[in-house]
Write a structure and sequence with these properties.
Number of strands: 4
Organism: Furnarius figulus
CATH topology: Rossmann fold
Helix content: 40-55%
Number of domains: 1
Protein name: ABHEA protein
Subcellular location: Cytoplasm
Structural class: alpha/beta
Oligomer: single chain
Order of helices and strands: HEHEHEHEHH
CATH architecture: 3-Layer(aba) Sandwich
Shape: globular
Strand content: 15-25%
Keywords: Cytoplasm
């Protein structure tokens, strides 16, 4: 993600519109048609505006305690028809409850909580994470 980790910052991704354009460009370059977007933590800054602006281009959305959920209204979330698997660890008592409170307004959502897992629940409980993810993927059209 531009501006995170060892990636150089990019002026183009300072705004939500810039982040949507960036993610759109990545998907186009990869030739992806209706992918499932998995969004852990900081990637929420990119995934959420993309979901709200172009969610119809996605087959599914899997937010894993993403940041930025409070930046949007319940009404904005209600307009999204993308099937969503809200996934988080029950030991993530900081970001996960806030994300759930906001994301639960997505009309096509289901929630899976991984017991004994923290913020990076996919690392703490990889088998449980993959079981939930694969179950979700099987139910998509």
């Amino acid at each position: 993600i531009p501006g995170y980790g060892d990636s150089p910052s990019a002026e183009a991704v300072v705004t939500a519109q810039g982040r949507v354009a960036f993610l759109d460009h990545v998907l186009q370059e990869l030739g992806m048609q209706r992918p499932v977007l998995i969004s852990p933590s900081m990637s929420g800054r990119f995934a959420l505006p993309f979901l709200l602006a172009q969610g119809d281009r996605l087959s599914g959305f899997v937010p894993i305690a993403p940041v930025g959920t409070k930046d949007y209204t319940a009404e904005q979330y209600r307009r999204v028809q993308t099937p969503t698997l809200i996934l988080y660890g029950d030991r993530d008592t900081g970001l996960a409850p806030q994300a759930l409170q906001n994301l639960q307004h997505l009309p096509e959502h289901q929630v899976v909580v991984l017991p004994g897992a923290g913020h990076a629940c996919y690392l703490a409980k990889p088998e449980d994470f993959h079981r939930a993810l694969l179950g979700f993927l099987r139910r998509l059209k």
